TrEMBL record:
GO molecular function: hydrolase activity
Domain of life: Eukaryota
Protein name stated in the entry: Carboxylesterase 8
Gene assigned in the entry: CXE8
Organism the protein comes from: Acorus calamus (Sweet flag)
InterPro entries linked to this entry: AB_hydrolase_3 (IPR013094), AB_hydrolase_fold (IPR029058), Carboxylest/Gibb_receptor (IPR050466)
Alpha/beta hydrolase fold-3 domain span: 78-288
One Pfam family here: Abhydrolase_3
Length: 311
């Protein structure tokens, strides 16, 4: 299936789904551009959907390798958090379903993709709470796929864009109780009141302009909070980083307005806040480039595979 086309400066107003979001008059909800977001149903026996918390309407999509492992073979588990600025997308979104299925087969691994609550209807920390609930669900061993094939001693968190932010805050909350093996931050979404050089230089980026960055934080942070809140800018918050995270990989691309913050995160984690830090920063590419470029999608899967198998 052909992937979506990356917005350009000329087409952004009609092709960038973030610019098609409509804020509703009630001030507490948005209208999402659902017709513009392709989805893929689960396809047993290699993927299936399960409820996480019916009260919160959260779900999980589990992925197994296309070639099931032999009996008694235990696979690493990757708990995956999708991007979307905390506002849109889910585990069935085509360009998040596809890499999860691909990683499950390539590594191989069990991939648990989390449908968390979305902002602004459920502002942060709702998504972090859902993430921890998903981690607890995995470690409960309640699902036969996880019980039969999952190695709880090799459980990783992974997030793309805002999902990387969720992975960080979920790891901090869960690391003391759960033996997480590692965390993958793919172009993680963090912020701050003071603009970085890359944000200013790429303020009109077709994929992630500053107006989209600011909208995402305004609609997802607790009401009244600014971008230096600990959810957006943990590097500046007092008391952050006291829990030592397991091995971490931080990925980024030079054409991403958030690249400076991603490099800052890697340096910050490297100061004793993680067991070790693997950096994968590339001079080519842009924010969410793996959605639009098959070669970049393959590179992401290979990086994750190398990290997971190397831990």
């Amino acid at each position: 299936m052909a992937g979506p086309r990356r917005p350009t400066p000329e087409t952004a107003n009609t092709t960038n789904v973030f610019l098609l979001i409509k804020e509703n008059p009630d001030g507490h909800s948005i209208t999402r551009p659902t017709p513009f977001i392709p989805t893929i149903p689960a396809s047993p026996p290699t993927s299936k959907d399960l409820p996480l918390n019916p009260t919160n309407h959260t779900h999980l999509r589990l992925h197994l390798p296309h070639h099931p492992p032999p009996p008694q073979t235990k696979l690493p588990i990757i708990i995956y958090f999708h991007g979307g600025g905390f506002l849109i997308f889910g585990s069935s979104t085509a360009f998040y379903h596809a890499p999860c299925a691909r990683m499950a087969s390539a590594i191989p691994a069990i991939v648990v993709s989390v449908d968390h609550r979305l902002s602004p209807e459920s502002r942060l920390p709702a998504a972090y709470e859902d993430a921890v609930e998903a981690i607890d669900w995995v470690f409960s061993g309640a699902d036969p796929w996880v019980a039969e094939h999952g190695d709880l001693g090799r459980c990783f968190l992974m997030g793309c864009s805002s999902g990387g932010n969720i992975a960080y805050h979920a790891a901090r909350r869960a690391v003391a109780e759960r033996g997480l093996k590692g965390v993958v931050f793919n172009q993680p979404f963090f912020g701050g009141e003071e603009r970085t050089e890359s944000e200013e230089r790429m303020c009109d980026d077709a994929m992630l302009p500053l107006k989209v960055i600011d909208m995402a934080w305004r609609l997802s942070l607790p009401e009244g909070a600014n971008r230096d809140h600990q959810f957006a800018n943990p590097m500046k918050a007092k008391g952050e980083g006291e829990e030592v995270l397991p091995a971490c990989m931080v990925r980024g691309h030079a054409g991403d307005p958030l690249i400076d913050r991603q490099k800052e995160l890697a340096r910050w984690l490297g100061k004793g806040r993680a067991a070790r830090v693997v950096e994968r920063f590339y001079e080519d590419g842009s924010h969410a480039v793996e959605i639009f470029d098959e070669g970049m999608a393959s590179r992401l899967v290979e990086d994750v595979k190398d990290f997971v198998l190397g831990c």
